[in-house]
C-alpha cells in the first residue's frame, strides 16, 4: 500500500470530485443552513443552536426516531437471518439452484414506490378478502393500525432486500474451502456443529458487510414508507426520513428540517461506525 | 522498466479523468432572461401544479402561440398539492425561476412577495368575482389571478336516493341527514350497497382541511385572512363536527384508516357501492372516466352546519402569479397571456369546456358549465350560499394535514377522545401563531 504516487491520485480524481460536489459540499452547506432561518429562498439571520434545542422536545421527531430504530432492529435481524438461510438453501446441491437465486433476488429490482403500492394492494385487498373467506379477523384492516403498519413495512423491506443480502452471503459461503468441511466431517462433527464452528465464523466478514447495508438502508427508508402507509395512521408509522421531508417541505421549515437531517446523519453514522468496528473485531482470519 | 509503466499509468489516468470531467461540463450558453437565443421571440416559462388539466392547458397554449407568433410558451407541470411547492422553491433558489407560477394561499404570497408582479391593471383582475382576490390583495396591489372556483360537500348517487325514497332537497340539518342515512342503511341490501359512506380517513386533507374547515369557517366569519391572522381557534362548532365525523365513520366502509381517496372515488363511489361521499367537484373527471352514464346522475348536498344550512364551502384553490424578476417586455407578455386565457372568447371557451372549471370571473355563459357537479356548485356560489374556504389560512406547520387531520384519525382509532382532539389542535394553533 505504499504506491500512492501521482497516478493514484489522478485515478481517484473523478470519484473524489463527484464525492465532493454531490456529498461533501451539500453536507457543509446544509450544516451551515441549519444554523440560520433559511426558508428555501433566502436566509437572513443566524439563529445559532435554536433549531437543535427545539429538536429536543419535538415529540413528532422523537417518535419518528424511536419508530425507525425499532423498525431497523427488527428488520436487520430478520433480513440477516433470512438472507443467510436463503444463501445456505441455494448453495446446497439442488437442481433449481440458479432459478431460485434469481427468484429470490428479483424483488430487489423493483423500485420502492411501486413495491409499496403493490404491497398496499396485497395488505388491504388480498389480505382482506382472504380474511373474509376464512373468517380470520386478524387479516382485516391491515395498515389501518400502528402495529400492522409496522409489520407491513418490515415484511415489505424483508421481501425486497433479503435476496440482495443472500447474494452477499452466497459469495462468502462459496469461499469456504471444502477441505475444512471435509476434515470436520471426518472428525465426526454433525451438520449443526459444522455450521456453528466452521461456516458461521468464516462468513463473519459477510455479516459486517450485510449488517452495515441493512442498517443504513432501513434507517434511510423513505419511498416504501411513503407509498405503503404514508406515515399513517395518524403519523404513527412515520420514519425519520419522511418526518424530515415533511418538516422541510410541507411545514416549509427548511432550516429546521436541515437541522433534523444533520442530527439524523450523526446518529446513523455513529451507529454504523460502531457496528462496523465491533463486527470487524469478531472476524477471523483463515 | 519502472518508469515506462509509471508513464503508462499516468497517461491512462489523465485520459480517464479528463474524459469524465468533460462529461460533466455542458455547454449551456442559452440566454436565460426570458429571451431565447434564436430570433426575437419572447419566451415564457409557465410552471403549474394542476395535473388534471395539463393536456387541455397545453392545447390552449398552442392556440395562443398560433395567434401570437412572437411568443413562445413552455409549460411545465408538476403535480399534486404537496409536490409542487418544493419544486417551485428549488427552481427559485437555483436561479431557474419560471415567469408564471402558482401561489395557493396567504403564506405563499408572503414567501414570494418580492417576486410577485402587481396584476391590478389586467382585465382579468377586474373581472374576478367578489371575494376571490382577498388572499392575494396587498393594499392596492393584486398579486395573483384565481384559477377557478372549487366546492365540496356530500356527493350523492341520485338513483339510490330515489330508490330509497329520499328527497335530497329536504336534507338541510344534521337531523335530516342522519335520518336519510339511516333510511339508506336499512335498505342497503336491496340497494346493492356495501355502506352508506366511504370515509377516506387515510387522507389527512379530507379530514383536516375540508371536513374541519366546514365547521371552523363560521368562527372566522368565512374569511381566510381572518383565519390567517387569528391567534387561536375555539372550536365553537366542535360538537357538530364530532357528530358529523361520527356519522360518516359509523356508516362507512371499514376500516376507514386505510381507505384512501382513489378507493373512495373510484372503487366505492363510481362502482356504486356507497351512496354518499364527502368530496368536491374535482372528482367529476374520475367518475366520468369510470362510468360516463353514472356521472350524469350525481349531485352535491351541503354538509349540515347549524346556522349555515344549505351552503356549500366554495373557494379558490390556486392563483396564477407573474414573476417580476424579468424584463418589462416578458412580464407584460406573461400578463397578456393570462388575460387572454380568462377574458378572450377562445380562452373562456376552453376554461369552461376543456378545463371544466367553475369560472372565478364575470362574463361567462355559465349555463355552459360542463358537468352537473360544477353546475350545482356554481349555483350555490352565485346565490351566495357559501361557507368560506379558510383552510389556506390555517397555520403552516401544516395545521390541517399535520395536526387536526391526524388528531381526528387518532379519534377514529380510539387513541384520543374528542376533547383531546380539540385541546391539542388549539394548543398547536396557538403555539404556531405566537
Automatic annotation (TrEMBL), chain A:
Main subcellular localization, coarse class? Answer: membrane
Subcellular localization, per the record? Answer: Cell membrane
Tell me which InterPro entries the record gives. MetI-like, MetI-like_sf, UgpAE/MalFG_permease
Q: Membrane spanning segments where? A: 7-29, 64-91, 103-128, 148-172, 202-222, 261-278
Please indicate which superkingdom the organism of origin belongs to. Answer: Bacteria
Give the record's keywords alphabetically: Cell membrane, Membrane, Transmembrane, Transmembrane helix, Transport
Membrane topology, as annotated: Multi-pass membrane protein
Q: What is this protein called?
A: Sugar ABC transporter permease
Which organism is this entry from?
A: Gracilibacillus salinarum
Taxonomic lineage of the native organism: Bacteria, Bacillati, Bacillota, Bacilli, Bacillales
UniProtKB/TrEMBL annotation, chain B:
Among InterPro entries, the record links this protein to:
Bact_solute-bd_prot1, SBP, SBP_1_CS
Top-rank taxon, per record:
Bacteria
- PANTHER family assigned: ARABINOSE-BINDING PROTEIN-RELATED, POLYGALACTURONAN_RHAMNOGALACTURONAN-BINDING PROTEIN YTCQ
* Keywords for the protein's UniProt record, in alphabetical order: Cell membrane, Lipoprotein, Membrane, Palmitate, Signal, Transport
> Any keyword NAD?
no
Q: Name one Pfam family in it.
A: SBP_bac_1
- Which region is the signal sequence? 1-22
| Record protein name field | ABC transporter substrate-binding protein
Query: What family does the entry list?
Result: Belongs to the bacterial solute-binding protein 1 family.
